Structures are given as structure tokens and as C-alpha cells.
TrEMBL record:
The lineage of its organism: Bacteria, Pseudomonadati, Bacteroidota, Bacteroidia, Bacteroidales. Pyridoxal 5'-phosphate binds at A75, S76, W99, T147, D166, Q189, N231, T232. The modification N6-(pyridoxal phosphate)lysine is found at K190. It comes from Dysgonomonas macrotermitis. This is Phosphoserine aminotransferase. The keyword Cytoplasm applies.
Amino acid sequence: MKKINFSAGPSILPEQTIEETAKAILDFNGSTLSLMEVSHRGKDFIAVMDETVALFKELLNIPEGYSVILLGGGASLQFCMIPFNLLEKKAAYLNTGTWASKAEKEAKLFGEVVEVASSKPDNFTYIPKDYTIPADADYFHITTNNTIFGTEILTDLDSPVPLVADMSSDIFSRVIDVSKYALIYGGAQKNLAPAGVTFVIIKDEILGKVSRQIPTMLDYRVHIENGSMFNTPPVVPVYAAMQTLRWLKANGGVPAMEKVNKEKAELLYTEIDRNPLFVGTAAKEDRSRMNVCFVMAEGYKELEADFLKFASGKGLDGLKGHRSVGGFRASIYNAMPLSGVQALVDAMKEFEKNNAK
Ligand SMILES: *Cc1c(COP(=O)(O)O)cnc(C)c1O
């Protein structure tokens, strides 16, 4: 039985991405050489890099004046690279979860950090909405999808200062207006490719404003000037990302993804709200369409391990919640088909039949 992968990350990828990357690892473009052993400066790989960047721009409708770069180091390296390049005096952060907290911690190494609001006292179950962004901040940092706690900012916020967003776990999942952001970044391993490549979309005019010296490898301008080839890029993950973006384009692009993602999330949350054995953990208005967190309801707490085992027996893999939330987390990224979510809903109904008091 082929398992259905609900893991939060690394996570499910389109079959096409895995198959085409596997083929290229054995024989890249009919060269008889592996994608893993060819020069990244050869024309065939440069074409891969160019197409990947072009697809980013096309699928996200990225306006003129922005660059797309593909780097190593994960989203976590961006936590320090962003303030290194952008923070001169003061930056504002919205604290909505573990990743947001980690980003904020790094910024403190470079200047004053104003935490405009935090939902930490409520275990990050909601997105704070009532706060003021200091008008003299160099930028305002948000995490659009909180992978661990299952909350998501589903609109493009207005900000009086450059808006910086960690979109590691919801990039390409809904239509966004890139012009409202100064910088968007994320690790690939949630919605795009295997771990190893990190995307950064930057408005060029925000760079070059800090007075500190920036080490070459941490300077966005170096990577922009060198077309993400200043040093050896992670070629296999970049190739896989290109395949995912081709798949996305062939399937109607981001608007089509958004439509299915809404259907999937609606299907699962409706079942969580209906089924007396389960209860959602995130505030309803802030529920993530990518990571659905839920626990056993009062009176059924002792059945947690049983449900995981039951689901696993049906091939539903990776449902265990993060240790800071407990219970279950169903990650239903772009590559998860509606039928996968339906299989989980069916399992929840059957488990209810077997166990309801
Ligand atoms: C997974 C994740 C990260 C960390 O990504 P790495 O590539 O492992 O550094 C950061 N932010 C968010 C929102 C994530 O989901």
C-alpha cells in the first residue's frame, strides 16, 4: 500500500517531481551523466536555473524590480541574513510561533527589535491583529504560515515599512500580491522541493542601505549579481523545484492550487468540528490551510495513540502533532490531493463509529 504523507516537512511532493528528478539523477537530459555529477556552469544546468527563476516570476506574478535567488542554508539562515542586510537601527517582528520567535532572536544580534505583538501566552493559537508597526522600523517581519501551530495569515498585510515574510510553508498555496512585500523567503521542503534550497524574492531597492560590512556569502547583492551561482548551488533540489513549478503551471497555477487548498481545508475542518472525538487547536478565523492541528476531545484523550495507530494502519502517515501542541497535525500542502484528505476524514468517521461513547 502506498502511504499518504501528511508530514509537516520534509513533506509530500508531486509524483512528477520525484519521478523526473530520479530520471535526471540517472541520466540528465540524455547526457548519460547524472544531474549530480555535471557542472552547474554547463549550459544544461544554467537552463534549469533560468527556467526555475522564470517560473517563480510567472507563477507568482512578480513585478519588475524584484530578484529571485536560490540559496543554501535553509530558511533558518535567512533569520540572520535578513537583519544582516536590512537592519540598520530597528526592526519590527510579529511573534506568531516557534519559527517567528527564532527569526526575532537572530535580529536582536543586529539592532533594536520591537515585538509588535505575540500570541505566545496562548500557545500561539491565534494571529494577533491589534498592533502598531513603528513607522521608523527598517522592516516588519511576519511568518505567514505557522507550520507548528496551524495558524496562517491569509491576506497580504498593509505595512508602513518594508514587509518581510517567511513563507516557507505556504508559498504557492494562495494568490499573493508580491508588490506588498519587500522580501519573501522560505525553505523548499514544505511545498516545493527536497531540503537544501532556499528561495528569496527581494525588492532590489531595499538593498545597500545598511552601513555594516556584509560577508560575501551573506550579501544578497552578490547572489543577485551572480544569478545564484556565486558558489555551487544545490543542483538536485533546484532541479526538483523546477519540476514542481512545471507541475503547478500545468495544473492551473496558483489560483487553481488555492481553490483546491480551500476545498481540502474546508473538508478536514468541517469533519473536526462535526466529529465529537476531535477538536481543533487554532482559532477558527486563523486556521491554516496547510497544517491542520487537532487533538482528542475531552473524554477521549486516552485514545490519541490508538487513533495514530488506526490511521497508520490505513496508510495515513506523519499525523503525529508537534510536541509543543500534541495530538495530530495533518499537513495538506499543494501536492496533497483532495482524495488524500478524504481518506483521513473517512478514517476519522470510522474511528468515531468504533469509539464514540
Ligand atoms: C520549516 C520552517 C522553517 C525552517 O526551515 P529550514 O529550511 O529547516 O531552516 C522556517 N520557517 C517556517 C515557517 C517553517 O515552516
